[in-house]
Write a structure and sequence with these properties.
Elements: E1 3-7, E2 11-20, H1 27-32, H2 40-46, E3 53-58, H3 77-84, E4 88-97, H4 103-119, E5 122-125, E6 130-131, H5 157-160, E7 180-183, E8 194-200, H6 205-227, E9 235-239, E10 241-244, H7 246-253, E11 267-275, E12 278-282, H8 291-296
Parallel strand pairs: 8-12
Antiparallel strand pairs: 1-9, 2-4, 2-5, 3-4, 5-6, 7-8, 10-11, 11-12
Length: 320
């Protein structure tokens, strides 16, 4: 059985930023006075420690580039413009033990949301490089789909430059191009390598994205179980062959009442070590065909072909 070994850091760093027209100098007091839902006590206990640090920064002194932060959703374009043109920022840093995850990053992001609400600013995740949703409170339960992966589709058909045929119209169109390369940006703060999937044809981009999401949730679940055993080693070895299930896909969304996928059996994927901090996701060794044949065929559960954003649980009916 082929195995993969990767380093597991003892601590990881998360960084968030809030851009606003005016950022007060005393951010500690501002944060302590700002509502943060279930995380208020956690913030108060961690503030000023490595687990939660806040500081004010001005554009002229930044060591990071606000222009590299992107608004990946159309309704965030105005927020993205505001972030790119801001002169003042509040930066939230969390340098926490790997065993303190995911609580440490949730507390840090809750602090960023609280500061954004208090200043009327725009929050961003500097690890994923994405603008965050409008100021809101961090939910108590951890859900990987809550913008933790930096998972977003690239412009379809390479912004119109790709002219490969659609598979439905041309049998050869399954492998008509290799435009799409997807990579996570966020697993590293949980002590895992990032994941990528490459050489994907444009029509299969959503299936590829959901394979990446399912793999990420599967690895994170097993990683936290491994950390709970208190390993003393700074490396971890796992099988290169993964057996992914509907449960992994549902767990990514944090949903318990999703429509049952019609392919109940596990499907297999294979990991390849690109670097110690990057793993490639692809079809299993015994699959005869390309990655696009794998993504287009009947191997994957049907739900991976049509779910782009969170299929939130339908509210239960209220009593009359």
């Amino acid at each position: 059985m082929s195995m993969i070994t990767f380093p597991v850091p003892s601590t990881t760093t998360s960084r968030f930023a809030v851009a606003a027209e005016h950022v007060p100098h005393n951010l500690t007091d501002l944060l302590l006075q700002s509502p943060a839902g279930a995380f208020e006590a956690h913030m108060a206990g961690r503030l000023g420690s490595p687990q939660l640090q806040v500081r004010r920064e001005e554009l002229a002194c930044l060591r990071w580039d606000p222009m590299r932060v992107k608004a990946v959703h159309p309704d965030q374009r105005q927020a993205g413009w505001a972030f790119h043109h801001a002169e003042e920022f509040a930066v939230v840093n969390s340098f926490a033990p790997i065993t303190d995850q995911p609580r440490a990053v949730q507390v840090a992001r809750a602090a960023a949301y609280a500061l954004a609400a208090a200043t009327g600013g725009v929050a961003a995740d500097l690890i994923t490089g994405h603008i965050l949703a409008s100021p809101t409170s961090e939910r108590t339960s951890f859900v990987l789909a809550d913008h933790w992966l930096g998972d977003a589709l690239p412009p379809f058909r390479a912004n119109g430059r790709c002219t490969a045929p659609e598979p439905e119209r041309d049998p050869e169109g399954v492998n008509g191009c290799s435009c799409v390369c997807l990579r996570t940006r966020g697993l590293r703060r949980f002590g895992l390598p990032e994941l990528q999937i490459t050489d994907v044809a444009c029509p299969h981009d959503l299936a590829a994205l959901n394979v990446l999401r399912t793999t990420a949730r599967h690895l994170l679940t097993s990683h936290w179980s491994w950390l709970a055993t208190g390993p003393a080693d700074g490396t971890r070895t796992i099988s290169a062959a993964l057996h992914l299930t509907e449960t992994d896909f549902n767990d990514f969304w944090g949903s318990t009442r999703r429509e049952h996928l019609t392919h109940p059996t596990p499907f297999e994927a294979r990991l390849t070590l690109v670097t110690p901090r990057l793993l490639e996701v692809g079809p299993p060794d015994d699959f005869e065909g390309t990655i696009n044949d794998w993504l287009w065929g009947d191997t994957l559960p049907l739900g991976l072909y049509d779910v782009l954003s969170s299929p939130a649980d339908i509210p239960l009916p209220k009593a009359a």
